[in-house]
Every structure is written in C-alpha cells, then in structure tokens.
Amino acid sequence: MFVLSLSGRRGHGRAGEDRIPALLSSLEGLDLPLAPERTAGPEALVLAGRAESALEVLLRATEIGDLAVGLGIGAVGLPLPGGVREISGPAVEAAAHALRAAATTSQVPLAVRAADQRHQDTAVDAEAVLRLVGWMIRRRNRGQWETVRALREEPGATQAQLAQRLGVTQQTVSRAMKTSGWREESAAHPLAVRLLSMIDLTSAR
User: Fold this and answer.
1) How far apart are CA 180 and CA 194, in angstroms?
2) Which end of the chain is more exposed for a tag (fewer CB within 10 A), N or C?
3) What is the mean pLDDT of residues 142-155?
4) How many domains does the chain contain in total?
5) Is the CB of residue 69 less than 8 Å from the CB of residue 4?
6) Dihedral over alpha carbons 138, 140, 142, 147 (to 10 degrees)
7) Which has the closest alpha carbon to 111: 138, 72, 63?
C-alpha cells in the first residue's frame, strides 16, 4: 500500500494560506481505499492502493504547490479502519520518515521511503524520477499550467479541442505543449509507476 503524508510548508506561498482544503478538493473522485483527511493543522493523510493512484496524488499535490510530500510504501494494518487517520503499520511509519526528509528540501519537497529496508535503493530511484517530474511542474507559467491540466483531464483531446476549451488559439496550445515539457514529463510517469509497484509488490505484508 501507499501512504502519503502531506504538510503545508511554512515560509512559502501567501502568508497564512492553508493548502489542505485545495488538496482534498483536488483528490475527489480518485480511486482510493479511504477518503483523504486532514490530520492536524496544515497536514493531510492519503492512502492509495495502486501505484497509479499514488502518482496521481503526488502530481496533484505538486500542482497545488507549497506542500511537502512524504510517500511511504509497505504494509498497513488490515482490515482497514473506518477512517484514514486510524490506519497503522510500517507504511505509515515510512511515510512519516519521508515527510520529515521532504520538509528539509528546498526545490522539490518530496521524499519516498520503503518500509522494507531491502527496497530502499528502488525507493531512491523512484524519488529521483518523481523529483524531476516535480521540478518540471514547478517551472510552468500560467498558460502552460492551464494547457497541461486540460491535457491531463482529456488525454485524447486534439489541440483544436483544447484551444476551444481554453478559449485560446491552437497556436497558443501548441506553443504551451512544446515549452511546458509535458511530453517529457508524461513519458516518465510509467517509469515512476513501475518503480513504485516493484516496492509495493515485494514488500512484506
């Protein structure tokens, strides 16, 4: 299982802004075993059963910005409780360790930890890929953001369809796609999923 512990980063973003409501709203509709919840202060906890879902949570958190993210991978206590704040197990502890590590980084506040120490090398590899993806996301301007978000919501849409949806020209969409690094970022997603899945599938349960 994948446990994501997220925290607002002090000293970043507008003073006093609470990012957790925006995060929880952005996660609505995702296929998650339990609903994400705020834990204490500017913090939240998310449980994902699949690597693809964990990646989606990471992407959405990075898009919101000013959130440190710790991803722990491993076993959780079963049966699952009624609420995500009640979950326990090695993956929860790994997520807490990962969040502490993420909070000390300056560029992309994200860390990955495997509950099973035998898989830490793979966790390091996954973290490297995810931080690179996060760095690309953080560099986008508003126009690039809007285009990429539309692409993520409608992967099969043509540039003309996206332009109509966004109220811009097709040339604007084409330029945003080229300069946003979207193709390069999305090409790294399958690798991130494979690395995360490798840890999950071979973790002690």
Assistant:
1) 24
2) C
3) 87
4) 1
5) yes
6) -120
7) 72
d(CA 179, CA 192): 22
- Report pLDDT digits (tens) over 38-76: 998 889 999 999 999 999 999 999 988 889 999 999 999
* Segment holding 63, helix H or strand E: helix 51-64
- Candidates 96, 82, 3, 99; CA nearest to 48 is 3
Judge if the upstream peptide bond of residue 155 is cis by omega within 30 degrees of 0. Answer: no
Note the pLDDT tens digit of each residue in 107-137: 899 999 999 999 999 999 999 999 999 999 9
Q: How high is the pLDDT of residue 27?
A: 96
Tens digits of per-residue pLDDT, 6-19? Answer: 998 644 444 557 89
The DSSP symbol for 115 reads: S
Place of tokens 């997220």: 6
Q: Which domain range does residue 141 map to?
A: 2-202
Instruction: Give the single-character DSSP code of 68.
Output: E
- Cα 65 from Cα 76, distance rounded (Å): 28
Measured distance CA(198)–CA(190) in Å, rounded: 12
List the alpha helices (DSSP H) in 77-181. Answer: 90-102, 120-138, 142-153, 159-166, 170-180
Q: What's the Cα-to-Cα distance from 99 to each of 56, 93, 95, rounded to whole Å?
A: 18, 10, 6
Q: Which DSSP symbol is given to 89?
A: S
